[in-house]
Amino acid sequence: MSSQSTPAPLVHRHSRRLLAAGRLLARLAGVLLQVREIQLSRDLKLIAAMTADRVIGLGDGLPWHVPAEYGRYLQTIAGQTVIMGRRSFEIFGSDLTSRCAIVVSRSVKRIVGAAVCPSLDAAVRQGSLLGGEVFINGGQSIYEQALPQVDEMQLSIIKGRYAGDAYFPAFDEADWVVIEQCEYDQYQWRRYRRRPPGA
Ligand SMILES: NC(=O)c1ccc[n+]([C@@H]2O[C@H](COP(=O)([O-])OP(=O)(O)OC[C@H]3O[C@@H](n4cnc5c(N)ncnc54)[C@H](OP(=O)(O)O)[C@@H]3O)[C@@H](O)[C@H]2O)c1
Question: Which of 74, 133, 149, 198 is least surrounded by CB atoms within 10 angstroms?
Answer without folding.
Answer: 198
